[in-house]
Amino acid sequence: xxxxxxxxxxxxxxxxxxxxxxxxxxxxxxxxxxxxxxxxxxxxxxxxxxxxxxxxxxxxxxxxxxxxxxxxxxxxxxxxxxxxxxxxxxxxxxxxxxxxxxxxxxxxxxxxxxxxxxxxxxxxxxxxxxxxxxxxxxxxxxxxxxxxxxxxxxxxxxxxxxxxxxxxxxxxxxxxxxx
Length: 179
Description:
Layout: H1 8-12, H2 22-34, H3 43-49, H4 58-63, H5 83-91, H6 95-104, H7 113-117, H8 121-139, H9 143-171
Helix pairs in contact: 5-8
């Protein structure tokens, strides 16, 4: 079990997200789409979505493999609830961060990695187009349902915080830690 120690100042800064984070939804859906297994509820979505994926989207599957490390720059800490704002934040990632994240990424070395690590503007634009295209192809038609699920989860977590405090809220963040 992972144990995180908080100071009083840390606890004072605990906040719930304001809403859905499109880049986290995108990243986690890439993980779900990449594998043959997973919750049965996503089987039809995987079967319908996979044929619609273009070669350009292969980059996202390389940056966010199903298992292991996914580059952190795809989910900036700003936590934007707007897809375009989140993508713009990704595209403003420092060259140092791009290089560090890509150096940590395993798997086959693709020819586009070096230019992306160097912050090549054309490669960054390609990444932005890939993120937008993936959202359109894989998530757009389900977005209202995804948003409703996230909103319901946030409402439940707000109630937990209100009724039981930060300790119970934090212990509810992963099914393996629920007491």
